[in-house]
Amino acid sequence: LGLVLTMVVLSFFVYLWLQYRLFVGAPALSLISPQDQLTTDTSVVTVEGKTDPEVKVAVNSQEIPVAASGEFKTEITLSAPINKISISALSKFGQKTELERTVYLKR
Three-state DSSP class for 91? Predict the structure, then answer.
């Protein structure tokens, strides 16, 4: 009985620790498009991805709307042969996750 009780208490504290890390940790950020090192002949690229709900997302320092599900989507106009696209997700606790993609515009 003592071993079972110890395991239950230990499991509870592990669960609390994991929830705490999720709560105050940097937000998840995944991109569907564009792929890094993409070469395209069109001057408009769709930036699309997913993050945690209630997170602020910025693409090239411009905040974009995020759906309640955490999904976001916007279009970027390419202006140079080599374009760096910076995507950041900022949690309400100030934790930040950043990704960068390079897109090549072929004219």
Answer: coil
